Amino acid sequence: MKRLMAALLSLVLILTAQFNTVQANGNDTRVDYEQQYTRIGEDYHILNDNVLLSKKDGTVWSWYIYGHPLSSSDPFYKAKKMQIPGLQNVKEMTVKRKSARGNYIVNYAALKNDGTVWYWDAAPGTTLEASTASAPKQIKDLKNATSLVAHYNSAYKVLFVLKSDGSVWGLGSEIDTTKGASPVLVRTKLLDDVVSIKMAAGIVFAVKKDGTIWRWKANSYLPNNRSKITSPEQMNGFADIVKIEPGISTSYAYMKDGTVLSWPTADTKKYPLYLHAAKDARTIVQFDSMRDRNIDKTYAFREDDQLWSVDSNDKVFPEFTDIASIYQNDYSPQVRYYYVLKKDQALWAWADSIALPKLVVFIDETVARNRSEKADKPAAELPRTADKPTGNRSGTTAQAVIRTTQEMSLYPYVTMLQPGDKQFIAVNNLLPGTKMTYTIDDPSIGTLANVNGTQVVKANKPGQTIVRATASRVGYPDVTAYFLLYVVDSNRLSETYYTAVQSVPVADRQRPFIVEGLTQAGELVITAASGEKPELVDGQFVITHEWIDRVADNARKAKTAVEQTLSDNNIALARELVVNGEILASLPKQKGFTVKLYKDSFTNRKDVDYLTVHTGDAKLTFDLATVNRLFGSLPVIVIRLVENNNGGYHVQFSDEQGEELSNVSSNIRLILPANQADATHTSVFYTNGKVTQPIGGKFNPYNNGMEAEINRSGTYFVDDNTKSFPDLDNKDPELQQAVQFLGSKGIVTGKEDGNFEPDSPLTRAEFTAMLVRAFYALDETATESFSDVNPPQWHVPFIASSEKKDIVKGYPDGTFRPDHTISREEMAAIGARSLHEKKNYYYPSNTEDYLSQFTDQHTISDWARPTMALAVKQRLIDVPADKQIRAGEAVTRGEAARMLYRLYLQL
User: Fold this and answer.
1) Percent of the chain with pLDDT over 70
2) Can you list the pairs that 364-367 forms with residues at least 24 positions away whose Cβ atoms lie under 8 Å?
3) d(C-alpha 127, C-alpha 718), whole Å
4) Mind listing the pLDDT tens digit for each residue in 717-735?
5) 360, 464, 584, 646: which has the highest count of C-beta atoms within 10 A?
């Protein structure tokens, strides 16, 4: 079998190479001739039912294998794809075809990212490919849908829709032949508290929040069968279910602990079987129609990206590795085809009863007949430029695109909060002059507030709903984006996270801001699971090795579950998950807390990144990577934190003998309560009774407070520190916001005349001062060694602190050159290194995908390419309209403020 597979693959390479159609190296197969290519995954997201979603413009395509009859001797399968007119930005789609072969679509129903449902039905005797009326219709008054399935007979259809509130509805009607008025829908509510629905063999299955499975026959809800309607029935023997995969003959359910159950799809009485050999499988693939004795009937798709036989534990599907994801096409209740996307973005498929999968080579592209119809583009989903180029196909070149249409990205994409928690809402990519309006679908679950210019959502009670942001600008259509809000109790965070990740459209699962939103939500799950409540020892919180071990063990289990969830849904992290363990107060509220830290409890730990200790309404967070510097030669540090009557907090550092320490050698994060914080104009202040100064800080909605890094004994409080600069009035809103934000934190300052001078060149000394303030790195005891930096120059303490903390480097000749300008690639490198070192972001391995957007990428130095790619990916810098990066040119004060503002919000 292995020799046969190798021979077939070799035949693919030999035959296609003779016609100059393939450039290949082993499994890395790519077509570069005319419109033929194999790496369909580079340009399209793959959906079930042979549907593709363009990464470039959101258009929807159907594909099919042609050239029947197929033979096991075929070197590969040839495929064509056809654009489905009038449809864009689809999350799920169910398609009925006239034949298993070809693209003869007679019905479809599509769920869009905005929660609306659209459908198309063929007139008698025709198909979508031949129809002159191919625009889909929207189901009116149906919103907030999160999943759907559909069932058809000759004259009637019924859709089953899961809504964001957990309810499931049946919508039955006659088949719409596009003549006359739209048919009247018969709506039936079936269930509540549902998290997912699936259908196979005409039976609909629903998983409820309590982990039970319910089922009903789709046919009985057709309008002509309403006398046969029976209520959904609960299936026996199922508990703690998080996912189901119903099949034509056999169905599978997945439990929280990784156990896989199976049952005959049509049998309502048999209890499920436990498939012990399939435990922890990502999905199950069933080859009912294969007639090869070397191929088993059932395989489990596992974490090593291979298919393992469930019947023979040590047996792997022959010669088939590096699988990224698996899909299926249910042509009929009796016929299911599987196809897989491999990590090299090539598609492989099983067709008919041929046992071995074959490479799918796409030959051409077509659009359904009615080309004049414009694709439906609701304001919620205007197309955006793809993150990746379409590849290196002959004759294709990247075209510069000047942005003239309204678009935006909304942060977060998905968030989970516990009742009473808050989350700020950030909108990026807005054009100047844009007005934002925010709404929430269910105000009982969460409420919105504009807190001094910052939009914040507050969680009220458990449930799930959608928060929408609409951008309006004169001369442009309105654009609406949304995110999913889950409000859950702490004991259900992990389960809800799994549901939330599954709800993300396949087309969006690699978009950077969505990946970051899911990453942060996963970190919240880890933190919530880690908490421990130690008892006081002589009136102190004593943080021992034992307590940190317990926190770390809790966090490890939660982290594993989060990573598994992301992997199951093909979401690749842009950075490592940050593990922040928590020590929770076990006391009633009081004014003062004492925390005793032992150095040997903190050092050499790789399982926890941060440890947060709750001290009443305030919190202290310790970075375990810097504990050696924090303790220095001290074996013990004691921190006393006392709330003052005016709302400030006095922090005192001391050694084990009670001797006060004026400062410690590394920063500790202090989080002060600030329920109504103005994120733009508020700062954390430090005072020692003689000097009062702003030290920065930003509002963290997850902690409901202002966080800043401290290293000195003294009093800290939150207060307004509004700064304004007259010469910013004619600048874009983001730049105004950036300078006001950084100015209120004391990070940037204006000139003597009160202006900011955003268009003036930035000097190395100015940029160093900004960074030292932003990173809380100012150390009055630091000394510098540069020959051209001497007292009483204003920048001496900043450059000295920068040298000590290795922020901005000097030159090999021993100079710093404080009055020289800083280049764009130098600025980007400092920002990207900060993300890498402080937040564990990975440098992109595919730098060309990001840097090829610049027509002058040759100006980027070799050393700066990885950092520039990360800066572009995380939007520390923009791609200008003229596509020129001018990497070696000097940056302005305004550019630096914008970059630093974006960086500050991500750290």
Assistant:
1) 81
2) 364/35, 364/36, 364/80, 365/35, 365/61, 365/80, 365/81, 365/82, 365/83, 366/80, 366/81, 366/82, 366/83, 367/82, 367/83, 367/85
3) 66
4) 988 888 889 998 888 878 8
5) 464
